[in-house]
Amino acid sequence: MAAGTPSDDAHGATVLSSIHDVGRNQWNNLVTQSDRGSLFHRHEWLAAVEAGMDHAPRHALVTKDSNPVALAPAFATGLDLPHEAADAVVDALDVTVLLSGEPGYGGPVVSSNEAVNVDRLFDALEAACHDRVLYHRIATHDLGNVRYGQYLSARGYDLSAEVALLVLDIDRSWDAVLAGMDKERRKAVRDARDQDYEVEVRRLGDDLDRTYEAYERNMARVGGNALPESFLAAVADELGDRVRVFTAVVDGEPVGRYVHLLDTEQSVLVHWLSAIPDEACYESMPSELLHAAAIEWGIAAGFDAYSFDKTGAHFDNSIFRFKSKYGADAVPLLHWEKGQSAVVWPLFEAARDRYRARALRDA
């Protein structure tokens, strides 16, 4: 195993500048053996982010006798803000952020001697936060990580839960899942299936260009920022069978695609990306067709849960209410955040709070 940037040589704590500086099997063995490990901790996912995104790896790793015993993935990247004027200020300040679990989800994975090795991980991450790092943020959907709540608070991290995942129990029959849906949603699924349709299931790499084109048009339509095609290509290459594209075809015409990730470590089928290119496609009810087909597929494949992925945690958010009607339960996305710049961080945090409050009022 090649060395990265050592932060505590006596104890084998390292910050890796590339996931390829550690063997895939060594890394993944720790991920799969831990209750906290997920697809987003795996070597392949981190390799895809490294290859396809403008992110610099800063993965904390603790070893014992050259074997990984604790890890905490993280990437350094530029600060992405919603206004060009704000971007200009950030560029002038020349700051970066350290993200643990974005894209995806993060959090520590520790196999032994947790009290000592968690300290080593966070000591290593803090050593990676040089003067240009504005903040470090951990994003985790694993509520088991609340075990680190008091520890992280003592280290200066603040917790927020403004985003949620809607997660559906699919460790049961399709009929039971359908019966648990809101009456309106149950009728919509049945109406969607009362037409000439089929749902095709393929690997992401089988038709990447068309899938990305539909995804990019979807994001432009809703005013979102699309992930780069290079990242999806890297995900297809690295994860292979861990990614599926569900395509709804009505009257012989494709009307939408959903990209799903197979998080077998957590037994969750994750609805990751939507690719419904045009508003007119909704006349064919692609959302109902795709979610229903993916849920049935997940049941057959033995998954315990189906994740509708992230949405704003607000009772009046239309997407939150729509997904809830499938019978899904809201699971908070835990964000632990610690400012690293004594001067810039308080100013940035205050400005961000004002922007969020105004956006909520205008919604």
From TrEMBL:
It comes from the Archaea. Residues 185-308 form the BioF2-like acetyltransferase domain. It holds the Pfam family Acetyltransf_6. Keywords: Transferase. InterPro entries: Acyl_CoA_acyltransferase (IPR016181), BioF2-like_GNAT_dom (IPR038740), PG_Glycine_Bridge_Synth (IPR050644). Gene3D superfamilies: 3.40.630.30. Signal peptide: none annotated. GO terms for molecular function: transferase activity. The keyword Disulfide bond does not apply. PANTHER family: LIPID II:GLYCINE GLYCYLTRANSFERASE. This is Acetyltransferase (GNAT) domain-containing protein.
